[in-house]
Amino acid sequence: MAEKKRSRQPNGASSIYLGKDGKWHGRVTVGVKDDGTPDRRHIERKTKTEVTKAVRAMERARDEKKLRKPGQSWTVKAWLEHWVENIAKPYVSENTYDGYEVDVRVHLVPGLAAHKLDKLEPEHLERFYRKMQESGSAAGTAHHAHRTIRVALGEAMRRGHVATNVAEIAKAPRLEEEDIEPFTIEEVQSLLVEAAKLRNSARWVVALALGLRQGEALGLHWEDVDLDAGYVRIRKNRLRPKYAHGCGDNPCGRKAGYCPQKQQTRREHKSTKSRAGRRTIGLPDPLIKLLRQHQEIQEKERIEAGTDWETKGYVFASPTGGPLSPNTDFHIWKKLLKNAGVRDGRLHDARHTAATVLLILGVPDVVVDAIMGWEPGGAARMRARYMHVTGTVLKRTAQQVGEALWGADGRHLP
Fold first, then answer.
1. CA-CA distance, 385 to 140, in Å (whole number)?
2. pTM for this one?
3. Potential cystine with 233: which of 224, 242, 294, 414 (Cβ 3.0-4.6 Å)?
4. Basic residues composition bias: which ranges (predicted)?
């Protein structure tokens, strides 16, 4: 029996018909184009059954908001480069952008560039992460690349360029959490003795006693310190410097950071972004005394520098008042550990140490969270991460258990 000729469907309804070319065709209205005209998608199959199945699948995708919108067919390379420069860069912090940019340029584009964005599959990503690690990248590096492409594909999905964020499905590289051992009280005391010999010695006391992050300590301004009231407000973060060449038509042949006429292209500090990060911390009396001495020494440096002094208000400044370099600060820390005869450790381990001291002292959790600047939602996880159970705590707990079971004098022993 011959098929009926194509009949006109109501506006917006899908249509299925046999074409003059002998193939079956389907037309599905999925929305409106940028110019206001209906967006009708065309499907072509050999049989009516096949085209009907394809039309119904497209209708379901349309109704579930999972249909890619018309227009440019992005490759992974084109989308990532567009996303990082035009979408991410204007809205994220400088440090976050730097991480995204390195992941895109160094890892993601070389490894995934030719894939069509809407054809990318979870298995492509999982094989890519494995190849990264087989080529020598650390699991943490591969994990960071995973987080970056997950954010980029999430934006592509919100804009209708892909139906699914396959990075949400792909298994991220497994990370083994490092077992970090904080410095002991004896090691801290050795570090403080050696730090007293250095310029800006209070900088290291602040790290070990208050647990400030590097950016928070180097971004500290005198306007945020009230020594009479005995507190400090954390409101700014020092950013890593970034430079451009200033040599113009006579290139120096060096990297931008070593150019004799280099120009700073990044602001020195930014405001602390999270509410928990913006916090007020009480100062121990010995630290107040030390900061007063530090203030007096800095005033003498200001007088000696004369017109070369930069009036920027940094608590920990260069000999002419400018901001300290995070890279130089790190190397001073490493030298401090060596000179104090203390085992090697990360600068961030000073923060672990401060948190552990708070645990030993039995400071309430809510106060610890406020001092450390932890967000309420993740505070419990951060305490578990930072506040290591030390021998002191274990011994005190064992003693309390013993007293509860056998009495303080052990008279209930069998």
1. 17
2. 0.66
3. 224
4. 267-278
